[in-house]
Amino acid sequence: MENNLDHNTYLLINKKKLVISVYTSSQKRIYLKELILKKEFSKLPLEEIDYFINENIFKIEKLLKKFVEKISILIDLDIFLIFRISVKKNNFESMVIRENLNFLLNEAKDCTKKTFNNQKIIHMLVDNYKIDNQNFSNLPHNLNGNQFSIDVKFICLGNNFIIELEKILKKYQISLNQIFCVSYIKKFLDENEKDFFLMAQKLKDGLNPNEVVLTLKSKKKQGFFEKFFNLLS
């Protein structure tokens, strides 16, 4: 069998159920199974996850006639660490804002790693840009200033949770593609898009211009934040 480069496989974990879903590259769903858990979980139901993957992964591979090599996991549990920090850069001469954003993003990320070294950053979001005491919800173009700061929101997950998930996936020769926080995904759902999995893919593809891309798999034309990949990953 071949690999699954033209398919995306997702696993949703919440306190009541597990859901596995597979989509083609054209976003057509071709597989969907769920398992209602016998009791509610506040932490990762590791045994149930292992059982559920075992029950479905070979069926998926038979359907695809391809190996499933990667899976993205959506977690809807209260196990994320969420916090915000602000970083600032001063310059007595007018600075080019876009050039200095790189410096601030790295400083914010390095500070987080030093302070929470047992956590992995799942989502890194710029909530606000402040240029000479003026706030912007999005990064302005062609603007210089003497003071520049950003407010950054981090959504992190404990390394121990990730290690346990990777152990399970390794049993089936699957690697962990990406983890998503469902509470973050929910903010982008509406009447036109109610599918958690498809919204996760859209966010991964750059739907939110203020999310810093921390992983990059494709060689498509990069958005502004994607250009920081080599520095931030």
Task: Describe the structure concisely.
The protein is built from six helices and nine strands; from the N terminus they run βββαββαβββαβααα.
- CATH third-tier fold name of the largest domain: Nucleotidyltransferase, domain 5
**The CATH fourth-level homologous superfamily of the largest domain:** ATPase, nucleotide binding domain
Helix content: 25-40%
Residue fraction in strands: 35-45%
The N- and C-terminal alpha carbons lie at a distance of: 31 Å
Order of helices and strands: EEEHEEHEEEHEHHH
What is the makeup of the main sheet? 5 strands, mixed
Q: Tell me, rounded to a whole number, the average pLDDT.
A: 88
Number of individual domains? 2
Number of strands: 9
SS-derived structural category: alpha+beta
DSSP helix count?
A: 6
Question: Strands of the biggest beta sheet: in what spatial order?
Answer: 3-2-1-4-9
CATH architecture of the largest domain: 2-Layer Sandwich
Broad shape: elongated
Quickly name the level 1 CATH class of the largest domain: Alpha Beta
Low confidence ranges: 215-222, 226-233
Computed Rg: 20 Å
